[in-house]
Amino acid sequence: MFFPTDPTSIAKLQNIFHEYERSIQKVRSRHGYLSDKVNQLDAERAELKNSLEEVKDAKSALERNQLELFQLKQEQENRRNSEIMYNTTRDKLRRTEEQHQLDLQDKQQVELTLRNLELEMRTLIIFPFWALEEHSETQRLLTQERSARTLQENLLNGHLRRQQEMEEENKRSMSRSNEVCLGFSYKMHRFFKILEIENAKLEAAAKQQTSKIEALQKEAEEAVKVSPEEQPPPPKEQRLCLRSLICSLHKHQLEEEVLNLRRRMEATQAEHSQVEQLRRDAEERIRQEVQHKLEQVNLFLQTHAASQEALDQIRAANEASLRSQLEQKIRELEAELGRARNSQQDSLTQRDSTRSELERFKQLHSEELRLRKSLSAKLESRLAEANSKLLNERSRSLISSNMANGSLLGPPLDLSSLASPANYGQLNRNASLGLSLLNPAPDGQRSGVDDYLAKVCRGLYFTVCVNAEALLGSFPLNFSL
């Protein structure tokens, strides 16, 4: 092999060798740079893939947030439905209370009519001062009923006022929660837009980097294809130096890009954490408000139930007391009515007995009159017989005396005519004219008997009348003897 010895050729060869070395170093450095660039682009692709995965995670988180927002809206809808149900239940309770008030008014009207009927019955049956006592008792019961009704109306007004206050508070809390939800939804919407913009930027950068990587890969492949044919292989040390230099440059660039991506991710995470914190705060406030409202509603329902129970107890006590009082009054009225009926029955029986006694006295009086007539007739007949006997005896004595004296004072008497009862008056007149001188006792005896009989009749009549009046009492005796 021929080696040149002159210095010019050696210098030329050295220059050519140095140029070759420089060109080889350039090619190697370019190849290393391209390989480092390819590795960097691969790392960037991996980072971009990681960022895409993070963006996908952010999208999934946003979807979860949207789902949570939907759940919040669903909860708001459920709350609205519960408020509607509460309003309907309140209306039903109000209607039930109104119906109960109407029933109570009807019952009070019936009780008032019953009391009026009782008052009328008492005024018709019992004495006036009892009617006054019943009126005072009725006024007292009406006063108690008015006081109970006033208490009930005050309780109902208090419940309605508290219910209106709770409704106003619910409206205010709903407006605040709606404002918070609107602000939260606006922030989430803006965050979604920002993430979409960042995602679009990252996708564009990823596409650009992939296109660059593909172009660099093509250039590197072409350079690799061209360089082995034109240039000799570089030494190992120069290759290692170039590789370390390219690696350091690529590492520095990757560190800067990683720092940029970290700053960007930290900002995104900070904003996302802020949004999450806002969402949690809003959820906590809404939950606390809902819990507070539910507690208020439960407390109101408990107080309403307690007040309703108290009202029911008061109403039941009032009804029981009124019922017992009415039953007592009814029993008293029934007892008074029984006593009145018994007294009326006694008066009727006494009247009947008095009438029977009166009839008996009338019969006795008629029997007495009949006996008096019969006795008078017998007495008249006996007196006539006695007078006839007396006249006969006197006529005999007169005849005997005249015969003894030899003279007659008057014409002879017709003894047969004097002995008849029809001529009793004539006998009396003749006896009073001509025979009173001999025996005046029979006329005085007859007049005494008549007076005695008249006196006995008058005394008997007076006794019968007095006894009849004493038995009949206030019943008049309209009869005549």
TrEMBL record:
Q: Where is this region: Disordered?
A: 337-356
Which residues does the UniProt record annotate as the domain CCDC144C-like coiled-coil? 70-181
Q: Which part of the chain is the DUF3496 domain?
A: 323-402
What InterPro entries does this protein's entry cite?
A: C144A/B/C, CC144C-like_CC_dom, DUF3496
Give one Pfam family, short name only: DUF3496
* Sorted UniProt keywords: Coiled coil
Polar residues: bias regions: 341-351
The highest taxon in the source lineage is Eukaryota
Q: Which residues lie in coiled coils?
A: 10-75, 192-226, 251-285
Respond yes or no to whether keyword Ribosomal protein is given for this record: no
Q: Which PANTHER family match?
A: COILED-COIL DOMAIN-CONTAINING PROTEIN 144A-RELATED
Q: What is this protein called?
A: Uncharacterized protein
Organism of origin is Oryzias latipes
